[in-house]
Specification:
By secondary structure, the protein is mainly alpha-helical. Helices cover 61% and strands 0% of the residues. It has 6 helices and no strands.
């Protein structure tokens, strides 16, 4: 809502175009015109990497008090990589919030920005527990 309020303060503002309010999307709704498969892969892989960073930096064996640095830097890199592809989701709540304001095709493509991050997160949890964790399964 705050983003909508600020954006509407510009003359000529309208909830039209390929990705108003930085909604997530593919095809005509991708900032760079990337297709469905590219959107699926980038969202799944970057969520997977992000969750590995979060789990690794917050593990009981990681140095205390420093988790914010790798988490923040990895999220910055994720955005730099994927804003041109999908406007970056890696978070279904973020995708849902702007899609709800915009409606239309943003809502129609929203399912991918739930499925890919959830699948990436589940895969990261499994990999972390079975490959990187020192705790037995």
């Amino acid at each position: 809502g705050v983003i909508m309020l600020v954006a509407s303060g510009r003359d000529g503002f309208a909830l039209t175009g390929s990705n108003p309010l930085a909604t997530n999307g593919w095809g005509a709704h991708s900032p760079g015109g990337y297709g469905f498969f590219s959107a699926l892969i980038i969202e799944l892989v970057l969520t997977f990497i992000f969750l590995l960073v979060i789990m690794g930096s917050t593990d009981r064996l990681a140095p205390g008090g420093f988790a914010g640095l790798p988490i923040g830097l990895s999220l910055t890199l994720i955005h730099l990589i994927s804003i041109p592809i999908t406007n970056t989701s890696v978070n279904p709540a973020r995708s849902t919030a702007v899609a709800a304001w915009v409606g239309g095709d943003a809502m129609g493509q929203l399912w991918l920005f739930w499925v890919a991050p959830i699948a990436g997160a589940l895969l990261a949890g499994w990999v972390y527990r079975n490959v990187f964790s020192d705790q037995a399964s």
